[in-house]
Amino acid sequence: MMRRHMRLAPVWLTAAFFAGIPAASALSLLAGPVPAPPGLSGLLADQMGGGAAAPAPAVDASYRPDPAVRQHLADIMAEATSKREGPNQAEEMRTLVLSGEAVREYERIAPSIGFRANDAIDALAFYLLAQWGVANDHRADITPAQAAGVRRQAARAFAGVADQVATDALRQEFGEMLVIQGAIMAGVHEAAVRAGDEAALARYAAMAREGGRDLFQADPADIILTDDGFRRK
Is residue 4 part of a domain? Predict the structure, then answer.
């Protein structure tokens, strides 16, 4: 049976979930750099020139979720939010992380594009799609083939930094942070699309392009999404 395509930001992101997102924090996530192991962005950028890509080495990116790790992640994200936005938004972010809502909903929708729960590679691929999607005001469905292409790129890049996230705890922290941030970015964009707020969409795209430059080592607007993943125009 052919799986149907998936919107990057399905309805749940603008319903109960989006209602609980600290708005200011969501915006600063658009422009902020992704917290990633050193060297990851270069490994991603190296793959976007086209041509045949070598298969990714077999690397274990899975993790067994631990509530203590999520508590630590909530502290990290709340502290970062406090520095950018203040204590009230920090507590909202802490509540959002500890609720696990973003992770649960990601787990529900991920299989529709071939992604898995509790896997740092799949989380990275989801984040890349969200960052690129907002930067390009992408409103079309993400196809399973496109998602698979980005996941292959994420897997090759992750293999190069796997020694930096070599424990369940580090992989969970990395993976859940990416899932939460990707969901927030996609939710901000989807809400603006549904509201017909073109000015907000232009503003979000500009901010996401700024934030994506370090991640892609290029302007995300100069990158296209293909069945082989991201490619420079």
Answer: no
CA within 13 Å, CB half, 217:
11
Indicate the SS3 state at residue 59. Answer: coil
Question: Residue 154: which of 138, 130, 135 has the closest Cα?
Answer: 130
Cβ distance 123 to 179 under 8 Å? yes
Exposure string (b/e) for 82-116, b if CB count within 10 Å is 16 or more? bebbeeebbebbbebbbeebbbebbeebbebbebe
Q: Are 73 and 177 in contact (CB under 8 A)?
A: yes
**Cβ contact 159:60 at 8 Å:** no
Q: Which two tokens stand for residue 212?
A: 């994506």
d(CA 208, CA 136): 8
d(CA 227, CA 231): 10
Model pTM score? 0.88
Name the residue with tokens 């907000």. 200
Number of domains in the chain: 1
Banded model confidence at residue 26, pLDDT cuts 50, 70, 90: low
Indicate whether 5 belongs to any domain.
Answer: no
Q: For 49-87, how does the pLDDT look when each residue is reduced to its tens digit (9 = 90+)?
A: 876 566 777 888 999 999 999 999 999 988 888 887 778
Q: How far from the centroid of its chain's Cα atoms is residue 87's Cα?
A: 24
Kind and range of the H or E run holding 206: helix 198-216
Does 90 map to a domain? yes
In a domain, 28, yes or no: no
Q: Following DSSP, what letter does each residue of 26-73 receive, concatenated?
A: HHHHHHSPP---TTHHHHHHTTTT-S--PPPP----B----HHHHHHH
The domain containing residue 91 runs over which residues? 11-21+34-48+61-232
